[in-house]
Amino acid sequence: MKRRDVKQNEPSSDNSGGQRSSKSKKKEGTRSPQSQGWLKKGLLALFVILVVVPFSVKMLPELIQHFVYTHRIRLPFFVDLSRPADFSLNHTINMYLTSEEGISLGVWHTVPESRWKEAQGKDLAWYQNTLSDGSPVFIYLHGNTGTRAAPHRVGVAKILSALGYHVLVPDYRGFGDSTGEPTESGLTTDALCVYNWVKERSGNSLVVIWGHSLGTGVVTNTADKLLEQGVVFDGVILEGAVNTVRQNIPPFNPFAWHYWKFPGLGYLYRAPWEDYKFLFPTEENLKKMRSPILFLHSEDDHLVPIEVAQQTYEMAARAQNAERVKLVTFEGSLGYLHNGLYRDPRLPEIIKRFVQSL
Ligand SMILES: *[C@@H]1O[C@H](CO)[C@@H](O)[C@H](O)[C@H]1NC(C)=O
């Protein structure tokens, strides 16, 4: 999930700190026309959040899709996804893969940073050939909202590339410049498409899959699909992993954050949510998975509480063992929240050690 989520959470946390605002009002004494304006806006916002939105959601279950994925919010705005060099990824090519008929996925492939000079002006064929150069290949499955150009996603690609790895970052269907509309099974199909495409070209190189936020749900769904064919990922990194079972819907589901602070809303929200069959059964999937897994979680994650991460990790470790399943947490005082742990100076070493253990 994106910084935007953090922002949009602010009004609700302000709400819960209602004492603060009432105190300041007392100080003012009289109500100015300005504060009346704010009151009107506040009431209107409440009306929208408590009445219009749930009502619309009940009437139009497809709207759930937009709340869950918020894929139409193409953050950052006004960027050209066909020019990854604009994001100082000068050793990256933009390409399109066909996931299924009529579904084209925009994908960035970044080669190991050590090859940046060599990569200048090279075409798709050159990039594809590099995939078998023996360097580990990462597929990064991002969270909801925004595109592959979002700063925290580019941040991860840069770290991995600097470590000498290839990185492929797709936008799922309906996100960025990819066509189609997102659905849970559609996202799995997209991830499988990228994985299979990579595997056809990566020779004996390690292929590691990194999911962030909603992307962790896509990773485990994809792992489950691959298990049917007896295939396991060489390694899995789950950053800010969501767990829909432990974060019951509502009010703690990370994708229903709009509703966290509005008690009672869950009642209205539940039915269409269930109709939509939005599952992401991370917990069930993790029980079956047989890949080395590294969980990364920030203690101040505001969308997935650290306790949930701890429980998810313990469950996954029990299903395999503590050698193969690891959890690395980042202190809350660092302020990484849900998206920011790519900024941690220790991260490259953590990733490197994980890859070396594979
Ligand atoms: C290209 O990217 C590499 C790696 O990030 C960087 O060291 C280099 O300075 C960049 N070169 C140009 C011309 O921007």
Automatic annotation (TrEMBL):
Residues 9-20 have a biased composition (Polar residues). Signal peptide: none annotated. Residues 1-35 are annotated as: Disordered. Keywords: Membrane, Transmembrane, Transmembrane helix. One of its GO terms (biological process) is monoacylglycerol catabolic process. It holds the Pfam family Abhydrolase_1. GO terms for cellular component: endoplasmic reticulum membrane. InterPro entries: AB_hydrolase_1 (IPR000073), AB_hydrolase_fold (IPR029058). The chain crosses the membrane at residues 42-60. It comes from the Eukaryota. Residues 136-226 form the AB hydrolase-1 domain. GO terms for molecular function: monoacylglycerol lipase activity; phosphatidylcholine lysophospholipase activity. This is AB hydrolase-1 domain-containing protein.
